[in-house]
Fold this sequence. Notes:
By secondary structure, the chain is an alpha+beta fold. It has helices at residues 34-49, 52-58, 62-65, 167-170, 178-188, 223-233, 236-246, 281-293, 316-326, 339-348, and strands at residues 2-10, 13-19, 23-28, 89-95, 98-105, 119-127, 136-141, 144-148, 154-158, 191-193, 251-257, 260-266, 274-275, 301-305, 331-335, 352-359, 362-365. The protein has two domains: 2-22 and 51-189 and 356-365, no CATH class; 191-355, Rossmann fold. It has ten helices and 17 strands. The protein has an eight-stranded antiparallel sheet, covered by helices on one side. A six-stranded mixed sheet has the order 10-14-15-3-16-17, sandwiched between helices. A three-stranded antiparallel sheet has the order 11-12-13. α1 runs antiparallel to α2 (52-58) and α8 packs parallel to α9. 40% of the residues are buried.
Amino acid sequence: MITTLAIANYRSLxxxxxxxxxxxxxxxxxxxxxxSVYRALRLLTEVAQGGAIAALAREGGFASTLWAGPERPAxxxxxPSRRSEPVNLKLGFAAEDIGYCIDLGRPQPGNSFFDxxxxxxxxxxxxxxxxxxxxxxxxxxxxxxxxxxxxNGWLVxxxxxxxxxxxxxxxxxxRNAPEIxxxxxxxxxxxxxxxFRTDADAPARRTQIGTRTMALADDGADLAAAWQTIWExxxxxxxxxxxxxxxxxxxxxxxxxxxxxxxxxxxxxxxxGLRAAELSDGTLRYLLWIAALLSPRPPEFLVLNEPESSLHxxxxxALARLIVRASTMSQLVVVTHATRLIAAIERESDCRxxxxxxxxxxxxxxxxHPLDRPAWxxxxx
Length: 381
């Protein structure tokens, strides 16, 4: 289980060390930094996919994602001054068995058209929840990456690692650095669900080719295939119970439609079932959440961003029960501002609720003082 998430100098997150539990709710007012926490988590998994720099570019470029305030807490009450420390954006996490962090900075001025792209200055992988020299398993400093060789020494993995490539990509050798490969695949398995589209042209409303689907796609395009997979090899009783909890007396089936398939919802009082194209936005979105949270192959780590969007308030208690059930199989982080959903989850589980707020422009966790936050240390460049 991931116990700590660490973010520094990303948007309003000047330095945020977040304790995580098996089910963690991240909430706060608009503009408090909830979306930044979600984006930072997605950015971490993009590192393992090789897409972190492109992800930053989609957010407006490296410079626009950096913390814009002063460097030191003592300066937060004062007007921002000129920076004296190297520019950096740092992300990391620690689990009970392993930890990882990455430090992104600006490149040396050159003649490249892409000099505005960030470069990777430092990466570390360590054993256990705390970074300390004796626990280091692999590290990268500039272009040099090395790993423990099992004999209290170090094995050089690459001396010319490109500044834009993580060692999770360039050094994942199953013979010399199996811990890098294992961590990369572990991070790639994290699953994220954001706002499902439910407009008239949404992928979830179209018929699709049916193939066994262990995890719903993040755009919901394979809803029918994911639903049928749960029905055949997953928890069929839980699937029907989730539908009945939200829409009493209703049944959802997957039916052939031309060369493809689609879901059909049968509701009490109607003479025929309704296809996905006919369902209301809220109904379709809730069915998507059922398919996402009842996956027959649950991930180790699952992050939901504002799952309450477009749902009627009366559906939130049922959604809370679905989330709590999923948290028994996956570690969950739920980013939400729906007080009714939060209250329902808190009634149903022993979750951890983190209230974000801003102090002088920087996001912090209400009631979590610096001495109370999880132990964390960033490696020096």
